[in-house]
Amino acid sequence: MNNTILKEMSLIGDYATLSHGRVRYQVAGPANGDPVLLVHGLIGHFHIWDRNFNVLVEQGFRVLRTDLYGRGFSDRVKHPHNTSLFVSQLDELLQHVGMNGPVNLIGLSMGGAVITRFATTFPDRVKSMLWVDSYGIPTPENPLMRITRPRILGELLIGSIGGPVLRQAPNRGVYEREKHVDFNRWFSAPLVVKGSKRALLSTLRNFMLEDHTPHFQLVNEMNIPKQMVWGRHDRVLPLEYGKRLHGFIPSAGFQEFDQSGHLPHFEEPEIFNILMINHLHS
After folding, report:
1. pLDDT tens, 130-174?
2. Where are the domains of the chain?
């Protein structure tokens, strides 16, 4: 079944060869539409935006989504998976599709930290920002962080137990699992691509342990619309984590989603899409 899912997924979107490798992306909407960039999280790919992408296109936005390096169908590059890698990917891809002006940025989980780093690198190219259960404050005591940090041991552990653990990890993201019985299967499917575990390990060591909060504070001073949303039942980054992160960027709005875990845009798309469209029009 996973092979079928993988084949179907691989046929969606286009591919661009950038400085560090080949990346998959999809762009749609009128050429003169207000540009929106969607960035997924640590273990994911651009299909996590399936319930939002077409809504934006129908509203007249020019929408771009991509698989970050090491995820989905983008290359498993050997470059350290750090801030410069992800920011350069977004920079080059935006130029590739002709989005050269200010862009509305929307980031999920780790993608929230990625768009924040993009914003502080290219402040003149940001029109608005929306964070969905965003990462930003390092969590060095997280069990996954602790076991993968040591050299050699980390490689051994992620090589031996990484596959099963990663394939089940997405289940923690949804609140009402019985409503999303197929979620884990399609969400984790690209993890079988060779190099996925190595890419994750590199990301944990080089990006996830970095303290991104000073950059949230810098974005706080930017005179642009800013909004944060959080699932009240998030087991990945609990609501209290979200409130702590919001403390670094109090100029952003903060909206809780009552029936969501880590993925309010996926679990409550109707409510989220209304909030998102209103935010983009603000």
Report:
1. 999 999 999 866 666 555 655 644 455 555 444 454 555 666 788
2. 2-280
C-alpha separations of 209 from 39, 83, 106, 227, 238 in Å? 19, 11, 22, 24, 18
181: Cβ contacts below 8 Å, ≥ 6 apart: none
Q: How far apart are CA 40 and CA 246, in angstroms?
A: 19
Kindly state the tokens that stand for 54. Answer: 């077409």
Q: Among candidates 250, 34, 42, 26, which has minimal Cα distance to 133?
A: 42
Looking at 3.40.50.720, 3.90.70.10, 3.40.50.1820, 3.40.30.10, the CATH number of the domain 2-280 comes to 3.40.50.1820
Q: Which residue in this structure is represented by tokens 């502080």?
A: 120
- The predicted-structure confidence for 77-133, as pLDDT tens digits, reads as follows 999 999 999 999 999 999 999 999 999 999 999 999 999 999 999 999 999 999 999
Measured over all CA atoms, what is the biggest interatomic distance in the chain, rounded to whole angstroms?
Answer: 51
Regarding pTM above 0.90, the answer is yes
152 conformational bin, left if phi > 0, alpha if psi -120 to 50, beta if neither:
left
